[in-house]
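Exercise 7b. Backbone tokens:
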């Protein structure tokens, strides 16, 4: 079975914001129904967890960008590796004589 593909940071961030909004609405509804102490824990604790998860998403994005940038500017890759091999005079003369 193939591993599940991880979605990008934009989708994960948007999902986090929507989940946080739904969490806040639920806490406010519970507070209005009389479950004040539990609703306050849910509301403020949810904010703390949401901030921590947002930091994790940002850290993962930052690390991914750092790895991508490091691969693009790797010291181990010689500059000439991307250039085509130079044509020699003999190769072009042999090709014309055939």
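Sequence design result:
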């Amino acid at each position: 079975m193939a591993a599940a593909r991880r979605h990008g940071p934009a989708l994960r961030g948007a999902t986090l914001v929507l989940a946080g909004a739904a969490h806040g609405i639920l806490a406010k509804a519970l507070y209005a129904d009389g479950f004040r102490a539990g609703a306050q824990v849910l509301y403020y604790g949810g904010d703390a967890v949401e901030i921590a998860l947002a930091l994790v998403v940002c850290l993962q994005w930052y690390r991914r960008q750092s790895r991508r940038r490091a691969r693009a500017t790797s010291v181990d890759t010689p500059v000439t590796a991307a250039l085509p091999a130079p044509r020699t005079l003999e190769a072009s003369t042999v090709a014309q004589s055939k």
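Instructor comment: The helical segments are 9-32, 36-72, 89-97. The mean pLDDT is 81.
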